[in-house]
Structures are given as C-alpha cells and as structure tokens.
Amino acid sequence: MEISSKENTHFFSNTTILPVDRSSFKSESSASKEKQSCCGGIKIFLGALSFVYFAKALSGSYLKSTITQIERRFDIPSSLVGVIDGSFEIGNLLIIVFVSYFGAKLHRPRIIGIGCLIMSAGTFLIAMPQFFMGRYQYERFSSIINSTVSISPCLQDKSQTPLSALEKSQANVNAGCEKEAGSSMWIYVLLGNLLRGIGETPIQPLGIAYIDDYAIEENAALYIGCVQTVAIIGPIFGFLLGSLCAKLYVDIGFVDLDSITITHKDAQWVGAWWLGYLIAGVISVLAGIPFWFLPKNLPKTHSRKDSSTSSEQSKFITDDSKDQHKSYQQQVKIAEMAKDFLPSLKNLFGNPVYILYLCASIIQFNSLIGMVTYKPKYIEQQYGQTSSKTNFVIGLINIPAVAFGIFSGGLIMKKFRISVLGAAKLSLGSSFFGYLLLLSLFAMGCENSDVAGLTVSYHGTKQTIDYEQALFSECNSGCLCSKNDWDPICGENGVTYISACLAGCQASNGSGKNTVYFNCSCVGILESTSQSSSAVVGPCQKGKECPKMFQYFLVISVITSYTLSVGGTPGYILLLRCIKPHLKSFALGIYTLAIRVLAGIPAPVYFGVAIDTTCLKWGSKRCGGRGACRLYDSSALRYVYLGLTLVLGTVSIFFSVAVLWVLRKRSSPHDETLSTNRERDACGTKSRKDNFVNSDLLIQSTYWPEKETRL
After folding, report:
1. What residues have CB less than 8 Å from 112, skipping those under 6 apart?
2. How many domains does the chain have?
3. Locate the Kazal-like domain: which residues (predicted)?
4. How much is the pTM?
5. For 664-708, how does the pLDDT look when each residue is reduced to its tens digit (9 = 90+)?
6. What's the DSSP call for residue 137?
7. Do residues 625 and 524 share a domain?
8. Radius of gyration of the chain (CA)
9. Domain of 502?
10. Do 254 and 392 belong to one domain?
11. What distance in Å separates the CA atoms of residue 385 and residue 131, rounded to the nearest whole number?
C-alpha cells in the first residue's frame, strides 16, 4: 500500500541523525515524489496483471470442468483427453526458457500483452469444432418411428420392423459414418490449448519479477498477494461457468430441445462446453489491452537502488563473480545475453537447495495435477453426481478453501517472521498432514451400481465371470440385441439394464424422456410377477448410503485442499531466497519449465491411462471402434485414482525432508541467533541503507509469489 505523508515524515525524523539543511530536505522531497510516481505506475500494472491472472485462471479451470464433456462429445478415452490437457504445458515448453530469460531484458508489459492475444486466439480455436461438426448423436432406441408405427425394444424378428424404417436406420448409420471424420476435430481442441499455453508463458515469470523489481520493498509481498488472491477468483468463476454450461444441451440453438430424449443426469449428456470458451476468449482479449500502454521501466525508489542480497540469503548462495552485479536495465545485445545463458543455468543447477526443492515440486505437482484433472470425473462416477453439480461444488467449496489456505500461509509467514528454514518446515508439515488426510478418502467411496451383466448377474448375484459374455442371458435370448449399445433403463427392481432390448422388454409407452417399458422378462426374474415388470429411461440411482458418503468426501476434500495450500507460499519463498537476485526471473522460468514438462504433460496422460483400466463398459462409435467409457468399476477407480495420488505425494515428502536436511546443515544455531538479533535491530534508529540488509528477512517472509491453483 502507498505510504502516507505522515508516515514518511515520521520515518525520516527517526532515521536522520544530522541536522537537516536545505539540500537534504530537497533530497527528501524529490525522493517522496519519486516514490509517489513509482507507486502510481506499479499500481496500474498491478491491476492489469491481476485481471490477466483472473482471465488465465478462468480459462484453465473451465477446461478442467469440461474434461468429461469433451470426452463424450468427441467419443475419446480418458488417456486421449489427458493428452489434450497436457498440450497446454507443451505450449509453455516451447518458449518458456527464452521468454523468461530474454523477456526480462525487453519490454515486459508488451510481451505480456502479446501473450494475452495468443491466449485468446487459442481459446477461440478450442470452441471452433462445434460450428463445423455435425449435430451430436447419442445412443438411444427410438420406440416411436412415426405416429403410427411402434417398435418393440426386443426385436425377436427383423420382419417386425417395417422395411422403410430399417432402410432409414441404415441410411442414418451410413450418414454418421461419412461424418465420422468430424470426430477427429478434437485435434483443434489440442492445438487451441497449445496456443493457450504459449500465450500464458510470459505472464508469471515476467509479471511477478516486474512487480518485485519496481514495488517498494515493504509493499512487494502485499502486491503479489493481491495478484494471487484475484487469481483465485478465476477458478471459482471458471467452475461455476462450467456448471452453468453443463446444464445446457450441446446443440442449444441448433436443434429442438423438446426432441432430446436424455437429461443432464444421463451418462451420454453433453453440455454446451463450447460456450464458455467463447466467453473466456473475450475476457482474455480485454485483459491484454492495458499492457500496450504501460512503460518498459518504472522509476526505482531510493531503497531499491541501494538494495543488496540479504545476510540470510547469502548463506544459501555462492557468489562466483562480482561481474554478475550488472544492472538489468542496461541495454545489451541478444548475442551478449545468450553468452551468459549457460553460466546462469550452471549456477542454478549447482544449488542443491534449488535442485532438491525442484524435484519435490515436480513429483508433488504430478500428484496434484493428475488429481485435479480427473476430480470431476471421479465425483461423477464414484458418487453418481451430474457434471453440473460437480463443477458447482468444486468452484464454490474447494477453490475458496485453496484461497484461504494460501492466505493463511502468507499470514503465518508474516506474523511469526519465519525464516527460510522455518518456511521449509512449514511446507513439509503442510504436505505431510495433507496427504495423511487424503488417506481417509479410501473409506469414503460408494459401491458399484447394480448393472445387469456387468456388476451383477441377471439373477441378482455379484458378477464374477467375463463381462462381455454375461450381457446375454436366458431372459433375453430370444431378442436380437447388440452388446455394444448403451441405452440404460432402470427396472422397478432397482437394477440398471444396458438397454431395453437386453432387459427383454416387449412393449413401451410414451416417447422421449417419458418412455416407460413393459413386460421386461429380465426384470421379471427378480419380481413375483413377470407380467407387470416395467422399467423407465435412464440408469438407477446409486445406493442409499452414497449421498452421505459424498458429504463426507466433500468435508475431507475441503480440509485437504486447505492443508496442502498452506505450504504453497512458504515453499515459494524458499525457492526464491536460495538463488541469486539477478537470476530470479530465470529461476522461475526453469522451475515452471520443469513443472510443465515433467508434471503438467505426463500426469494427465498416465492418470488417464490408469483410469481407463477400470472401465467396465465402453461406448461404440457409429462406424465401429471403441468410444468413450460409459461405466467404471467404482472400487477399482477409487483405488487407482487415490492410490496413485498418494504414492506420488509420499515420494515428494521424502525430497522435502532432504531440502530441510540441507538447510539445517548450512544454517547453524549461531546463524539463527544473529538473524533474530538483526530482525530486532531493524526497528532501531540506524540509517535506511544500513537497515536494509537486516530488515530483508521480514520482506522475504511476507513475499507472496505466484502459485497456480491446483486443487
């Protein structure tokens, strides 16, 4: 925050020992004007950067909320969706090193503005397939061909179906095959997300370093904290937007909604996933406009000009050469900058604290990225919730918990003036207790729904034989049914049947969502009178205990998100204070690069592959081939999803312990005593130049760097 004139007068009266003559008073006045000018410019940049963080967080979280929608719309498996999600990180990989290193010496605001335009172009590209593909086709048996002809779900004889109806059905299949190439348009979604990654690249390393370079020391932490707080609002709106769009049918505005025979609770439902990307793209364009009018450099305050490395920071930095003290504002050629690239890289990787913390972060982000990417799918499949409700819950409950956790971590660091060693302890404790809480989620799952031929037999016993062969039974042996269909109905016995044909239904009444099937021979096996056996459209609800388990899951999930987020700020302080000041932007760029390459890209892919192994029933494409998964094994999904997350988190904790051990080895009790004394002396009456080194620890404690929301 800007310092008032009264506070400035009080500060100078305390720190000035010699009598104040006219020249010194004039000097103070010019310094005050310089500070006001700097504060005005940095606050404009702060507002613009906050809006950009909001825009990129909104589009990123909206992508997470549409994972299942994209999977169903393009009829692709989870592993391929993971590749699409990881393409964002590939975009970062392409230019992150060059942007973070060379961009720090060029016009940083305009580079961020260019990034916003690229990011918006990628967001618009993601939505484009909706306007070039055919209308969404879902698997559904039409009980009414026209107003006069009614077809039994159980086609005991092909002659039962009018020839014209069969020809029309075959023509529709052939037309669908011709449009099958449209399903490959998921490539445009991948390319659009890759462009988003390229455009987002300069925002974090250049934006945070710009604020840290030109903000007043005591305000730097507050400013970056404001950026981070505003950034948290982005995912909230992103998931809420995803919740709203998931309720709208994918082809809204293009088809008659009364003709749609499925609801948003159906496993085949696809919401208007494309609509949110158009909104996010417009926001990204607006966010980039202010940066074209901001200056390359801002005037530095007097304290910034005299600043140097803190005493605590110097314990973890080996000063190789005095030549590295060159000003960043100096105009240099690209060739000269490139010449210093390899020595700078060698300097970073020669720092054991930096390397160990980097390894811990990579493994932890593998855990968190995989968990967050498939969290909506997990909630939908495990607890039987709709996509709309799932996104609403994540946006309104989980994300605020993350925001509060980050705020709490920064507040603890500021209030208790925790040192770098203390920050390492706090980060380690946060991870340990967070993953310990995650362990309890294994006991908060739901059993598999009773699906005839998949999880239970047609006689009601638990399924133990091959799923494909078990789909057929004596009760539906007289029907001409396909095992590839997925058109679930719920029998009055509480069992879900894959289709009305496999349920042996002989008659139906009504149309669309209100269709009721009668005389279902397979439903009648478990009923006293088979003649009255009926079923309705859609799968049966999960068990009675599942809603209660879902509530328990939400409570533990919120507490876990908060606990893991508390350690985010201390961890970043540890990262930035163990490196040389002039390598700050470069270190952040390398850190981000490593997270993108070794966590952001592979984690969604191998998490998706692991989740695909738990699928019980795959959908079928119109021209053959495997489509998206329709039903998962709840127990297997729980153990794979949570188990993989927990194993990776445990490994990251071991690396965090190694970081703490190295810091303890380098920091003796005598050094800690001196550090404490320096903090007390910082409030004394020494000159500002002498106080800077001693008070730097307080500045470090309140520094709040950028950390993406991952929960």
Report:
1. 49, 52, 202, 203, 206, 207, 288, 291
2. 3
3. 469-524
4. 0.76
5. 888 755 454 444 444 434 333 333 333 333 333 333 333 333 333
6. -
7. no
8. 30
9. 448-541
10. no
11. 29
